[in-house]
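[step 3/7] fold_predict: job queued, chain A
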Amino acid sequence: MAVTAREEILRRIRAAKGGVANAERSRAAWSGIERGYRREATRPREAILELLVDRLQDYDARVVRAMHVDVRTAGTRMLEERKVKRMVVPAGLVAEWLPRGIEFVVDEGLAAVELDAVDGVMTGATLAIAETGTVVLQHVAGQGRRAVTLVPDYHLCVVRVEDVVETVSEAIGRLQATAGLATTFVSGPSATADIEMTRIKGVHGPRFLDVILVG
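[step 4/7] structure written:
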């Protein structure tokens, strides 16, 4: 079997560091490492959902809980409060979720300047992690390209309660089947701080995040 340049470079690095040079042996050694951290949920289901809401709110995200039939109503109210009129949505987003009175533009490879011209974006989510207050997005129907959720200034995200896990370990386990997809972990609105600890929003993504927790 032909060896790629990447595989050969990694083999040489492993050998230079005193490790095993064979990839199969390396994977076996990795699998043999004892992992004592918690890998399963310990809280009751409702407590997990409450923890997610608390963490998201702590990150300055707004969160509402709704039944499936109420997503449109909850979204309409949130967008009215934000004074949002024009939103981009990825192909495949559940039509019944779309709020009333909003102009929706379906992303079909919109340029960055076009994405910057809309008021915000609405998507679903692959899952959410309660402990870290994190929403996980992937390049799939209903979630779209990462540019769609990074360029607009506002993000409205719908998360199903059945897609909420307690720990990062659980999330990584669930994501194994789709590990080859572009994946983004979002913990609240985009924010960063410089060396003087001046907090600035919107540098790496939307300044405002609203989450509808459904179910």
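[step 5/7] annotate
Residues 45-58 form the longest helix (14 residues).
The chain has a mean pLDDT of 89.
exit 0
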